[in-house]
Amino acid sequence: MHFSRLHTFGICFAFVLTAAITAHGQSLPPMPHSPDLLGIYPGMPMNVARMTLQKHSSKYQVQNDATPEVGFSLTNPDPQIREMVNVYLTKAPNDPAVWLITKSQVFSPQAPMSVTALVTALREKYGKETLTDDRGGGGLYLSWLFDQNGKLLTSANPALRGCRGGSFVIYMRNSLPQVLNEDEKRCYASYFAVTAGLNRKSDPTLLEAYNVELVNLPYAFHAATVTANADNAAAEKARQEQMKKANKNKPDF
């Protein structure tokens, strides 16, 4: 079984260019240190996050990821329980900081994990989940939603069940689109959550794999907007310089 992929988003969006953007790093608003995933939280500076992740393994080293949208990762290739942690970072001119953390494990028949064991561990860490979405063959999703101060919400708009940090990765890597939809508008306004996706075996009490992500989408959206504004400002400056050259390049008649 594979986790279902989310659809592409779209709402009209206009970038606002600001003269304050420079080539230097910019500090985004401070984020609460809780919730965290493996001690790493959205807003944590890159170097601190990297050191924090390395503490979870004395055998394997944290690696810079070949995929530019992932800052770094830690993989345990044990065939019994394969584990991977990915940490995603904001782009320049923002100071590099965490906006998404994911952890996944895949289990062999010789090293099973029950749904109960995973859910119990998650509830001990984060409390009672805010939203549940059981898609049958598409997986079971549990979400813990928080306000921007890091306080767990006991209830939330069910429409937020469709929000996922992974859907924003392509926007952070490339650029924000000109068109987004109303669902994503809601996600980017408030979605700060831990989400667990459970891939169950034919025996629904056992896991084939799971994926847990922690993301603050308003924080990520803010960072991506800063990047887009800087890119647009640089492109406009380059266009104006090109026009100056073009206007000086007069032919003789």
Structural write-up:
The protein is α+β, with helices and mostly antiparallel strands and 253 residues long. The chain has one domain. The chain has helices at 46-54, 115-126, 169-173, 182-190, 217-248, and strands spanning 63-64, 72-76, 81-89, 98-107, 131-134, 140-145, 192-200, 207-216. Strands 1-2-3-4-8-7-6-5 form an 8-stranded antiparallel sheet. Strand 1 and strand 2 form a beta hairpin. The radius of gyration is 21 Å and the shape is elongated. Mean pLDDT is 87; it is low at 1-23.
Number of strands: 8
Low-confidence stretches: 1-23
* Lateral arrangement of strands in the main beta sheet: 1-2-3-4-8-7-6-5
Through-space gap between termini? 71 Å
Question: Topology, pairings included?
Answer:
Layout: H1 46-54, E1 63-64, E2 72-76, E3 81-89, E4 98-107, H2 115-126, E5 131-134, E6 140-145, H3 169-173, H4 182-190, E7 192-200, E8 207-216, H5 217-248
Antiparallel strand pairs: 1-2, 2-3, 3-4, 4-8, 5-6, 6-7, 7-8
Helix pairs in contact: 4-5
Core attributes:
alpha+beta, disordered N terminus, 8-stranded antiparallel β-sheet, 253 residues
Quick description:
By secondary structure, this protein is an alpha+beta fold. Helices cover 26% and strands 22% of the residues.
